[in-house]
Task: structure prediction
Amino acid sequence: MSQKVPFDLSNVKKCVCPGCPVQAKSGCVAGLKKQLAGALAKTPPKKEEIPGAYCATGRATCTDLDPSQPCQCGGCPVFSEYNLASGKPAGYYCRDGQAM
Ligand code: SF4
Ligand code: SF4
Result:
């Protein structure tokens, strides 16, 4: 099956994962956020440098996330734009893999 959500700068910028409580205590994500300006300057962006857009790229490379916290995808513009509520998984892409 082809990728449902394109991994491009436009979607990365709309993504609300960087503010999600699932990632709030991740040291790995904190490190990526510090380098984010440089990561966003690359075309195409590199999956392992972006702390979000997991609906496009699949499971997070950072392994210290906390999925007991609430996923914020339902409030993301990318989620509604690509009608991700009708797909699987319908959130927690950082844990469960890319949107299909
Ligand atoms: S739907 Fe979720 S993973 Fe996809 S861009 Fe929005 S917040 Fe990020
Ligand atoms: S995919 Fe959902 S749970 Fe994971 S970081 Fe993004 S908003 Fe949070």
Remarks:
- The mean pLDDT is 96.
- The pocket of iron/sulfur cluster (ligand 2) is lined by residues 16-17, 20, 22-23, 52, 54, 71-73, 91-94 (CB under 6 Å).
- The radius of gyration is 12 Å.
